Structures are given as structure tokens and as C-alpha cells.
User: Which sequence fits this backbone?
């Protein structure tokens, strides 16, 4: 069908050789197109949390503040509207509970959207009743409707998509106060286990620009299979992934290493939170260290370089278990 030829030469007990030829045109002067976006710097953003549950408000405020957001709180829709009109600086995002007394999330969103001043404010709605009707969600300009309970890592991924700015420019990484010196790492191969495309692109570019070879696995199961075929010098393991999460994948890798008597590969967890006690959970699962999202260029490179050169100790860690907004 493609105008080519395929041949096979086979000899018993010696093996087979398959060859093929194809005549293909060479397209000249075509630049490779890469997805262009700016990785959002949460430290520049203001968020309004509208939630009547005190515990949920506390978890959201602590989580968002740790990621760099300037967080404001309101216990109901009326108080939230008052804040919107009276804050000195406008908010960039509203995280809104669906089920609230007196004025629920839908009614709040309707009142908010009637004022043209808030057209650019993003809304993420959290609901225990399931996702909103698609038509209603679109009419209210709600960027995401998320079913509770919500893990921090998933909330981070939603924020990343909602707040990303697609432009005709390279990925912008938060600038370091001092330039990062390239490291001699051309022979070092890193496996990046991460399901989020934005995080894949960001981490891969940071590492490849420093000379590292990077392979990507879209979930934990793929990562486990790859480690059986290729020796990696380091594995960056996202914790929250579909099919198989980072903890389970790490356990399978450690069991395989022990069974095959393979050298232990350093595994660094990528996590969207840094809560007290998380270090113990990482150690118990066989993870050697972790780094929190959003990724910072200098922090990532320093941690990777330390592990690949001297074998860094487990760094500042966090809490066993991940609080959920329920």
C-alpha cells in the first residue's frame, strides 16, 4: 500500500532477519511544533474560598496558601459577594461550594456573572451532588465542576488547567535569582512518571535543557514495566495517577529490584502538598525523597543533581495521608 518491500530471511536455530524499504519524501524547513503555554505562578494570584464548612475552608486555605495563593474566605454567598465588591484588589479565582444555606453556589455564580466586572474571574465549583449539568455550567462560566471528596493533588491539576495561559511563547519557569549552571549529565537517564501533560512538558524541558535524558510514563503501571526493561539513574514519581498510583508503583519496583537483585534506583515523589508526616509515608512505601508542586526549576535541579551525584538524604517531608475536601 505504501509502495515498499518487506523481506524475511530465516534459518532454523539461528534466527530471523526482517527488512523493509520505503520511499518517503523529506519535508524541508518545517519547524517542530511544541505546545506553548505559560506555567502559572500561583504566587501572583488571589483566590476567594466560598464554603460554609469550617473544616473544608481550613484545608483549602492552608493548601492554597502553601502553593502561593493569597486566600480570602467567605462562609456564604452573601458574604462572598460583599468581599468581591469591597476587596482592594480583584480576585483571579473563586472556589465555590455548591451546597450552601440561603444562597447556594449556582445562585451565587448567577449573581456574580450579572456584573461585568467579574467576567474574567475563574470559578471552580465543588459539589457532593455530582457534576453540574453541562449547559448550566457553560452558561455560568464555571471552568470546572468537581465532585467531592477532592484530593489536593487533583485540585492542583484542575488549577493548572484552569489558570494556564496559552500563548505563542516558550514555557516560562519562575526565574531564579541566580543562573543555574548546566550539569554534566549526558549519560544520566531519568524516568518521569506523570499523567498530567503540562507537568510532563515542564519537568522534561527543565531536565533536558540540563543534559539529562528523560523518558515519560503516563501512569504507574507503565513506569513499573519500563523499569524492567531499562536501567534508570533516577525516577520522578507522581503520587496521584490513574491505573496505578505512585505509592503502588514504587512498591512493585522495589519488590522487583529485590527479587532480581538489582541496584536500588532512587525514587523522588512529586506531590501537590507538603504536610507534616508525609515523609514517613514516603519512606514506608520505598520512596527516597519528594518535591512539592508547583515545580520550581532550581529546587528540582538541585534535588536531582544531589541524588545523581552524592545520594541526597530524604528532604523536608510531610504528612501521612492527604486531607480531602468533603
Assistant:
Amino acid at each position: 500500500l505504501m509502495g515498499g518491500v518487506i523481506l524475511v530471511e530465516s534459518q532454523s536455530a539461528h534466527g530471523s532477519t526482517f527488512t523493509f524499504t520505503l520511499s518517503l519524501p523529506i519535508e524541508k524547513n518545517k519547524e517542530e511544533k511544541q505546545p506553548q503555554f505559560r506555567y502559572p505562578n500561583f504566587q501572583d494570584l488571589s483566590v476567594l474560598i466560598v464554603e460554609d464548612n469550617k473544616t473544608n475552608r481550613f484545608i483549602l486555605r492552608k493548601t492554597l496558601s502553601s502553593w502561593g495563593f493569597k486566600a480570602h474566605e467567605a462562609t456564604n454567598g452573601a458574604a462572598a459577594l460583599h468581599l468581591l465588591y469591597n476587596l482592594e484588589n480583584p480576585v483571579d479565582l473563586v472556589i465555590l461550594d455548591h451546597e450552601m444555606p440561603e444562597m447556594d453556589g449556582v445562585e451565587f455564580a448567577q449573581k456574580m456573572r450579572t456584573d461585568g466586572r467579574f467576567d474574567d474571574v475563574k470559578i471552580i465549583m465543588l459539589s457532593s451532588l455530582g457534576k453540574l449539568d453541562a449547559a448550566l455550567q457553560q452558561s455560568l462560566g464555571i471552568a470546572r465542576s468537581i465532585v467531592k471528596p477532592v484530593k489536593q493533588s487533583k485540585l492542583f491539576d484542575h488549577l493548572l488547567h484552569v489558570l494556564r495561559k496559552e500563548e505563542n511563547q516558550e514555557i516560562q519557569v519562575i526565574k531564579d535569582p541566580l543562573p543555574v549552571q548546566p550539569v554534566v549529565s549526558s549519560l544520566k537517564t531519568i524516568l518521569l512518571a506523570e499523567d498530567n501533560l503540562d507537568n510532563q512538558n515542564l519537568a522534561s524541558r527543565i531536565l533536558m535543557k540540563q543534559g539529562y535524558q528523560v523518558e515519560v510514563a503516563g501512569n504507574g503501571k507503565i513506569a513499573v514495566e519500563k523499569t524492567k526493561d531499562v536501567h534508570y539513574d533516577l525516577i520522578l514519581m507522581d503520587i496521584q495517577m490513574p491505573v496505578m498510583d505512585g505509592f503502588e508503583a514504587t512498591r512493585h519496583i522495589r519488590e522487583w529490584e529485590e527479587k532480581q537483585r538489582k541496584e536500588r534506583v532512587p525514587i523522588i515523589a512529586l506531590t501537590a502538598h507538603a504536610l507534616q508526616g508525609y515523609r514517613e509515608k514516603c519512606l514506608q512505601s520505598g520512596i527516597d525523597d519528594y518535591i512539592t508542586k508547583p515545580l520550581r526549576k532550581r529546587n528540582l535541579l538541585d534535588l536531582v543533581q544531589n541524588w545523581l551525584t552524592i545520594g541526597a538524604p530524604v528532604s523536608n517531608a510531610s504528612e501521612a495521608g492527604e486531607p480531602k475536601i468533603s
